[in-house]
Specification:
The complex is a heterodimer of chains A (about 1050) and B (about 500).
Chain A (H helix, E strand, L loop, with lengths): L1 H14 L2 E9 L10 E4 L5 E3 L5 E7 L3 E5 L6 E4 L3 E2 L2 E2 L10 E4 L2 E4 L7 E5 L22 E4 L10 E4 L11 E4 L2 E3 L10 E7 L2 H4 L10 E6 L7 E13 L8 H10 L5 H7 L8 H5 L3 E13 L3 E13 L8 E16 L2 E15 L10 H7 L7 E3 L5 H9 L10 E3 L13 H7 E18 L5 E20 L2 E2 L5 E2 L3 E7 L2 E15 L2 E16 L1 E7 L1 E6 L5 E7 L20 E6 L3 E16 L3 E12 L10 E12 L13 E15 L11 E12 L2 E10 L10 E14 L4 E13 L2 E2 L15 E2 L1 E18 L2 E11 L1 E7 L5 E3 L10 E4 L6 E4 L2 E4 L6 E3 L14 E5 L4 E11 L2 E11 L2 E4 L12 H4 L20 H4 L6 E3 L2 E12 L2 H4 L6 E15 L17 E2 L6 E11 L1
Parallel strand pairs in A: 1-7, 1-8, 14-17, 57-61
Antiparallel strand pairs in A: 1-4, 2-3, 2-5, 5-6, 9-10, 11-16, 12-13, 14-15, 16-17, 18-19, 18-62, 19-20, 20-21, 21-22, 22-25, 23-24, 25-26, 26-29, 26-30, 27-28, 29-32, 30-31, 31-36, 32-35, 33-34, 36-37, 37-38, 38-39, 39-42, 40-41, 42-43, 43-46, 44-45, 46-47, 46-48, 47-55, 49-50, 50-51, 51-54, 52-53, ...
Chain B lengths: L2 H6 L9 E2 L7 H28 L4 E4 L7 H7 L8 H23 L5 H25 L21 H17 L19 H14 L3 H14 L23 E5 L15 H5 L6 E2 L14 E4 L1 H11 L4 H6 E3 H6 L3 E2 L4 E3 L3 E3 L20 E5 H14 L3 H14 L9 H11 L6 H7 L3 H5 L6 E6 L9 E6 L21 H6 L10
Antiparallel strand pairs in B: 2-5, 3-10, 4-7, 6-9, 8-11, 11-12
Helix pairs in contact in B: 2-3, 2-4, 2-5, 4-5, 5-6, 5-7, 6-7, 7-8, 7-13, 8-13, 13-14, 13-15
Classes of the chains: A mainly beta (about 1050), B mainly alpha (about 500).
Chain lengths: ~1050, ~500
């Protein structure tokens, strides 16, 4: 025995002998893989590959070596001394991908709800500056709407339609922190965004989740030390420009309607000038970005530091529209003890922005470039002014100009219209906004026993916004003028914190797996700030009969010099105004829990419940608690025995069904339910020299102490399937979302009640739709390619309203009343106006459909003439790679939505889109399709279906070609990766809409109402990305 | 985290408001509630004046050109529908005033003089609002208390019930003995509702119901009070800031210039009614007129002609009420070359907008809003006395007004009174309700809207001015403009019809 042992010993010793293994790890394309983790199975002995993919490791002979890298299939090999080269294959079967859900993570394979993800690759190397933009066209059922595409503008995200008459914004959750604004996060720093679309998935956020939830996970450090630098230069230019009348057409149009006389043209037009105001006001501009990240990580912790700088100068000539942002991100975590992990995620942002007026029929720069007459020049020399300007200049030396002896042209034709010379509009006043945000969360993960994690997380937001505005002393017309200088400034510093404690406990019993989550949340936001203004005024001296003898204009500031335009240098008699200084708080308390269960990865079920309590400013005490339950089920058919044999073509097939309730109080706050006695204004008693004020007091509103949460109830049925070795993926969902107890504010039950009505729960709205996401990925030799496509349909309908209410008016246009409405049986905020039937060939008057049968066309003849909601939206992404080259084509569009074109006005002699004039009725064109110039009912025409257009569009958002230099080449200069690329973004738009950009119109109750929004620019992009 | 302590933190008290359930107890609170009525009234002025003026035969809608304000054009040309925004606006204002009055009457216990006075004022304002409602819309919902939720959708009450409430409210307010009275005829400090004002409105209410004797009695009481007389300063100043709270003024809404609250007096009233300044060259006028005006509500030639027929072209009152184009061009205001505006060649003068009254911004003026002046009381009294068979009193009333206008005395006939009222109170918001009441409206207004005057200067750059009026026919369909039978009552606002299934529309609308 002893002998045997002795004999055996050398053998066993020999078996345990250490051998040295080395080799190279490459990918399918034979590119070296850096940072691949290689270790001896069952030990902590391991290394990672170097820059060239090489490694060297000493292991016991015969041991198993494990090669692993995120996103690649792990390989195990038995150690053999000498060279062991390994090719790692990409893991196309990402079934075990982990998806972030509220208060935990879940394997994608076990999801039972409808959750769409957008990954970092959809955000990198694009010109998007905000995370919301990355959702557009990449996921089904998520629509990104913009009221403006000015530098720094934030778009609005709609998940599965419009589920409220109030706010429809989804809840954003950044690393667990409820975020009111996600502008402070550079998209490059985002690892993934999960959109919780169905009611059950979102229900864990209860009362805040009625419009869906977007979970944003920022990047964690990876690899053993990596530095990345990205640079991007973008040249922006105006895309689609509406055509307006030229000088000759303008003249003809206004002679025809007799609003201008021949002598007006003889007197004020040189017969030559034909200004293209769009050309004058816009220029090519640039956007420059730099982004640097430092990161590293191991199994104990990770570190991620990033800094980025964005400088976007918009397309308006000069620096009137700019957005500059500096963001930083610091994410770190460390497993201090086997039972304790600490971590923190922080986003720091500083921004500066300045913008011009838009999206408003009264004084928008976008509108004025369309509406100004082409007969006026942008500039005239002071010593050679046209008659109308010379008359003004005689009395008003403060006319604006370029500072080089030229004054900005004042139209002699458009009178005191709000549309004024865009340069005068740009220069007469400006407001600069700036601010910073420190957002983040710090957490402890306590793991006392196996399977249990207790998390305590404090999230916070410290913010400051300040604005500074100057109105110069100027004269443009008798309406656009200021005899003094006006300075206004404000400073707001809201703070927010949220403290959440929750536990996740996972246990398995045989094939039964269960995870229980329980938690509480408490949050408070405080808003506080002050604002003020100082300005000059006119002082008149009158004689004893009250006739003015003399007027003195007080500038309000010591000098008419921008260096003095601060409160400190205002004159002591300047007119002052101060407001703010009152802190307001909102608080919320919640309890929540969730149980996940699955049997053998085949049958899954999830139950959750959240209870939320709102504070008094939101809801009355007896209605403060809301309870939001959810349940969802999943069945993986492909795991069933009867599906055996389908594996060669069907990789996975799962059926899902879910039901859940969410809430919303987004339209509330400010004690709107309460009746209080408040001041109704004041009245001065006495005269200018000796007066006092009296205040009137009256009930604020009718009150509603039965006000409760808006509740959305959503059923979702879905299917996930993967075919052909997961090369083809299909996800399809059908949803039916019913939102009830809509909170309706600003309504009346009758005008004779005589007071404003407090909000009531007064309606239901449904959204139904079908969503399909398809993906295909394959490789043919060196050529890899993929296609991802998604399409979502949407049927939106208001299904119920309080019996006392037949409709709610939305957006208005000029003085012609509401043009959008919220009404039972119709889509939310449908267009409401006259149905234009054509032009009377005898008179040139527009003819409208007589709806009420009563003689004459009045408000009662208004009807449904369109809708801003699209029937379906879609997106397609193609990508391809060959050797070092890569290519992306990404397009998105919407179909079946209308746009109300609010770009014309007829109350002044303003230029018009040629769409409305080129085939108008005239004495010699009696079959004209648009009304005669000066038709009496032209104002009705402006709110008729004649001004509603098909807003469907398809836009190629991105065409990008990139090249990555061969690693063998660049490693000589210690570079791990170097990619250069060029893109065309928003370059091609296909649409029939005659205005600027159908993608950018109104949002909210102005959905699809175009009053001259800042359009998306066409972009030419050059970029570079280098990793060390 | 203990749930209970956290939940207490949700009880965040509201700032800046008072508790509804305990208000309306003290004198001070009752008065503050009454003060809210005056603030509400002031806020009503713009819609109130625009609608009444535009619906009369005194003015053209005006403006810089066709469609400049389609709403006003629609009113003036009788092509409006039940959606007309001024009509809806003023209707809602009246019911807001009634609501605030009802809150006082329902919640203030009249156990002190101040509280009784607040209640008397509330009754006055409720009656004031109902007078316009019943005289312009006919049967309207009778709201005499704060409505409970179950009562939100009221049907209309017969006119007789509304008139009864008006009479009762005014009689009680007058008899309370607590309404203020001016200390003397020249007292400029009394700004609250006076007993005489309540009597004047009561007299008006009687006259509208053709209760001529009652009307004559109460209106003669106002005359006999000695608290009011016709303004004897320059007639042209009567409505301007130079003559605020003059001895003739029955009710004004006070406005002032306070540099620290300059936008308090924001109103479109002055700029809308002022001349169309962007079409005018005012460089010769020495800046006495405000530089911003939109030229709506411009006098019709037939108003001017009526003046001329009675007073001659040099009539004292005519020349201080309105100016011809020639007259204003002598003041240095001309139609600029190549410009045109909607105007028949006449410019309102008694409402001229001077530069001095808007030191802060052009849409603020410190000129008080005028609601009623004693001249109207006299002419109401003239009519009531005439119909009551008291010719000498009627003559006295009429000739008091004519004397101030420097006209010879006349026998008061109904036609004489109608003419005098038209001239004396043109563009002062009484004409429309009068011609409706007299059933003259259809004859006077049936062609309103047929054509529109355009005043233009057709001179080229170096040519002499060539200013002339041209008439353009914009409305071509005779059925769609002009006063028709149904216009004797305004339409119930479309919004109310939509909101309230129990509401019936007036005939023909």
């Amino acid at each position: 025995m002893a002998l045997f042992l002795l004999i055996c010993l050398p053998f066993s010793l020999a078996q345990a002998q250490t051998v040295k293994v080395n080799g190279r790890v490459t990918d399918d394309l034979n590119e070296p893989m850096i940072g691949v983790s290689i270790f001896e199975k069952g030990t902590t002995n391991g290394v990672i590959t170097d820059m060239d993919g090489n490694y060297s490791l000493s292991v016991k002979e015969g041991a198993t070596i494990v090669y692993s890298y995120i996103g690649y299939l792990t390989q195990e090999k038995t150690a053999v001394a000498g060279v062991m080269n390994v090719i790692l294959k990409e893991d196309t079967k990402t079934l075990d991908e982990v998806v972030v859900v509220g208060y935990g993570v879940q394997k994608k394979s076990s999801l039972t709800g409808a959750v769409s993800s957008v990954k970092s690759e959809d955000m990198e190397a694009r010109t998007i500056t905000r995370a919301e933009q990355a959702l557009q066209g990449k996921t089904a059922g998520v629509q990104v709407l913009s009221a403006s595409a000015k530098p720094g503008a934030s778009p609005q995200v709609r998940i599965r339609g419009i589920s409220s008459n109030g706010s429809c914004d989804p809840l954003y959750v950044v690393d667990g922190r409820i975020a009111s604004d996600i502008g402070g996060i550079d998209p490059n720093d985002i690892e993934s965004m999960e959109v919780l679309k169905d009611g059950a998935s979102a229900a864990i956020y209860g009362a805040a989740a009625g419009n869906g939830v977007v979970l944003i996970t920022t990047k964690k450090g990876k690899g053993n030390g990596k530095i990345t630098y990205d640079f991007q230069y973008t040249s922006q230019s105006l895309g689609k420009v509406p055509e307006v009348m030229n000088a000759a057409q303008y003249k003809e149009f206004f002679l025809e309607n007799k609003k201008l006389t021949q002598s007006a043209f003889d007197t004020y037009w040189d017969g030559k000038t034909d200004t293209d105001w769009v050309d004058e006001a816009f220029e090519n501009s640039s956007m420059v970005r730099h982004n640097v990240t430092f990161q590293g990580g191991s199994d104990r912790g990770s570190f991620y530091l990033s800094l980025s700088h964005l400088d976007n100068d918009g397309m308006i000539v000069g620096n009137a529209d700019t957005y500059e942002r500096l963001t930083g991100m610091v994410n770190a975590s460390w497993k201090i003890k086997p039972w304790l992990e600490v971590g923190t995620n922080n986003q720091i942002e500083h921004y500066k922005t300045q913008s011009v007026a838009e999206g408003n029929e009264y004084g928008s720069m976008m509108l004025s470039v369309l509406q100004l007459d082409p007969l006026t020049k942008p500039l005239y020399p002071i010593d050679d002014l046209p008659l109308n300007m010379a008359t003004i200049y005689k009395d008003h030396k403060n006319m604006l100009g370029d500072g080089n002896g030229n004054l900005y042209g004042v139209s002699a034709f458009t009178g005191n219209a709000e549309a004024i010379n865009p340069f005068a509009m740009r220069d007469n006043s400006y407001t600069k906004n700036r601010g910073f945000n420190i957002n983040g969360s710090t957490y402890l993960n306590f793991m006392p026993i196996k399977g249990l994690t207790v998390t305590s997380r404090l999230s916070y937001r410290l913010a400051s916004t300040s604005s500074y505005g100057v109105g110069q002393s100027y004269y443009y017309t008798d309406k656009a003028k200021r005899d003094w200088v006006e300075v206004s400034a404000s400073d707001y510093s809201p703070t927010y914190y949220q403290w959440e404690n929750f536990l996740n406990y996972t246990r398995s019993f045989g094939k039964h797996n269960a995870t229980l989550m329980l938690g509480t949340s408490y949050s408070q936001s405080r808003s506080y700030g002050v604002s003020g203004s100082k300005k000059g005024y006119n002082e008149d001296t009158t004689d004893m009969w009250g006739n003015m003898i003399n007027r003195v204009s007080h500038l309000g500031f010591l000098q008419n010099d921008p260096n003095f335009f601060y409160f400190a240098y205002a004159t002591s008699d300047a007119v002052k105004d101060v407001s703010g200084g009152e802190p307001t708080y909102t608080r919320k308390l919640s309890y929540f829990g969730r149980l996940n269960y699955d049997y053998a990865g085949k049958y899954m079920a999830q139950f959750s419940l959240r209870a939320d309590a709102a504070d008094l400013s939101v809801l009355p005490k007896n209605k403060r608690w809301g309870y939001f339950p959810a349940v969802s089920l999943g069945w993986v058919l492909s795991e069933e025995n009867f599906m055996k044999g389908t594996e060669d073509w069907l990789s996975q097939l799962k059926l899902r069904a879910s039901w859940g309730q969410n809430g919303s109080t987004a339209s509330l706050g400010g004690y709107k339910w309460n009746v209080s006695i408040g001041a109704t204004g004041h009245l001065a008693v006495g005269d200018n020299n000796n007066f006092s004020y009296i205040n009137g007091y009256a009930p604020s509103a009718t009150g509603n102490d039965g006000l409760k949460w808006e509740t959305s109830e959503q059923t979702n049925i879905g299917i996930d399937a993967r075919f052909l070795n997961s090369r083809l993926t299909v996800t399809a969902d059908y949803f039916h979302k019913n939102t009830k107890d809509l909170i309706v504010s600003g309504i009346k039950a009758s005008t004779v009640v005589g007071n404003s009505f407090s909000p009531v729960n007064a309606g239901n709205i449904t959204n139904k739709g079908f969503e399909l996401e398809l993906g295909w990925q394959d490789r043919i030799g060196d050529f890899a390619y993929g296609v991802r496509a998604n399409v979502a349909t949407l049927k939106n309908k208001v299904t119920k309203m309080h019996e006392s209410l037949s409709s709610i008016d939305g957006a208005t246009y000029v003085t012609y009343g509401a043009i959008t409405r919220f009404e039972v049986g119709k889509p939310a905020w449908y267009f409401y106006g006259y149905d234009f039937m054509g032009v009377d060939s005898k008179t040139g008057e527009p003819i409208f459909r007589d709806i009420d049968g009563v003689e004459g066309i009045t408000d009662n003849d208004k009807t449904e003439i369109g809708k801003g909601i699209a029937d379906y939206t879609y997106g397609i992404t193609l990508n391809a790679a060959w050797k070092g080259f890569d290519f992306i084509l990404f397009g998105t569009g919407s179909q079946g939505n209308d746009v109300f074109c609010g770009l014309n006005r007829v109350d002044y002699n303003l230029n018009q889109l040629t769409y409305f004039t080129k085939n108008r009725w005239t004495e010699s064109n009696r079959n004209g399709k648009t009304p005669a110039s000066g038709a009496t009912d032209y104002t009705k025409y402006l709110t008729s279906s004649g001004c509603v257009f098909d807003g469907s569009y398809f836009k190629i958002k991105q065409i990008q070609l990139g090249y990555s230099f061969p690693k063998q080449l660049i490693k000589k200069v210690a570079i791990e990766n170097l990619r250069i690329y060029g893109s065309l973004e928003d370059f091609f738009t296909f649409t029939d809409y005659p205005g600027f950009d159908p993608e950018v119109t109104g949002v909210g109750n102005s959905l699809g109402v175009d009053k001259g929004s800042y359009p998306n620019s066409k972009k030419v992009v050059l970029g570079l990305s280098v990793t060390f | 985290m203990a749930g209970t302590s956290c939940e207490d933190k949700l009880d965040i008290p509201q700032k800046g408001v008072l508790d509804f359930s305990t208000y309306y107890k003290t004198d001070e609170q009752a008065q503050a509630a009454a003060d809210a009525l005056y603030i509400q009234l002031k806020g009503t002025y713009y819609n109130y004046t625009m609608i009444k003026n535009a619906l009369s035969d005194d003015v053209w809608a005006g403006g810089g050109g066709r469609n400049d304000n389609a709403d006003l054009e629609g009113c003036n040309e009788y092509s409006f529908g039940s959606d007309q925004s001024f009509i809806g606006g003023v209707w809602e204002s009246y019911y807001q005033l009634i609501y605030k009055a009802n809150v006082i009457l329902g919640r203030v216990e009249p156990d002190t003089d101040l509280k009784k006075k607040a209640c008397a004022e509330a009754k006055f304002f409720r009656a004031f609002a109902y007078f316009d409602l019943v005289s312009m819309w006919g049967d309207v919902p009778l709201v005499d208390h704060e409505l409970d939720k179950s009562e939100y959708q009221l049907a209309r009450s017969p006119k007789a019930d509304i008139w009864a409430l008006i009479e009762q409210d005014l009689t009680e307010a007058i008899n309370s003995g607590l309404l203020e009275e001016k200390k003397s005829v020249d007292d400029k400090t009394t700004w609250r509702v006076t007993k005489q004002l309540a009597q004047a409105i009561l007299g008006k209410a009687y006259l509208w119901q053709e209760k001529f004797h009652e009307a004559a009695v109460v209106l003669n009481e106002v005359r006999a009070s000695g608290k009011y007389k016709l303004y004897d300063g320059n007639y042209e100043d009567i409505l301007t800031y130079k003559a605020e709270y003059n001895c003739e003024s029955m009710l004004e809404s006070n406005r002032i210039f306070d540099a620290s609250n300059s936008m308090d007096e924001f109103s479109f009233f002055e700029v809308m009614n002022h001349w169309r300044t962007d079409k005018l060259d005012m460089s010769g006028s020495n800046n006495q007129f405000n530089g911003t005006g939109w030229g709506f509500m411009v006098p019709r030639k037939k108003l001017y002609d009526a003046f001329v027929q009675e007073e001659g072209v040099d009539g004292y009152r005519l020349n201080q009420t309105m100016k011809t184009y020639d007259q204003i061009s002598q003041l240095g205001v001309k139609v600029a070359k190549g410009q045109s505006l909607i105007n028949e060649g006449y410019f309102m003068w008694k409402r001229r907008f001077s530069n001095v009254e808007s030191p802060a911004v052009f849409w603020c003026s410190y000129n008080n809003y005028r609601w009623m002046r004693y001249a109207e009381v006299l002419l109401l009294a003239a009519e009531a006395n005439l119909k009551d068979g008291n010719q000498s009193e009627a003559d006295a009333c009429l000739n008091e007004v004519r004397q101030r206008a420097r006209l010879d005395a006349k026998t008061a006939t109904l036609d004489a009174i109608k003419l005098e009222k038209r001239l004396e109170l043109c563009s002062e918001y009484t004409r429309y309700q009068d011609i409706i009441r007299w059933k003259d409206a259809e004859a006077l207004l049936k062609d309103q809207g047929e054509r529109t005057p355009v005043l233009s200067n057709k001179a080229g750059k170096d040519e002499p001015d060539n200013v002339a009026v041209e008439y353009i026919q914009y409305n071509k369909d005779k059925t769609r403009y002009g006063f028709k039978e149904r216009h004797y009552l305004l339409p119930i606002p479309a919004k109310e019809i939509r909101l309230n299934p129990n509401m019936e529309q007036n005939a023909g609308w």
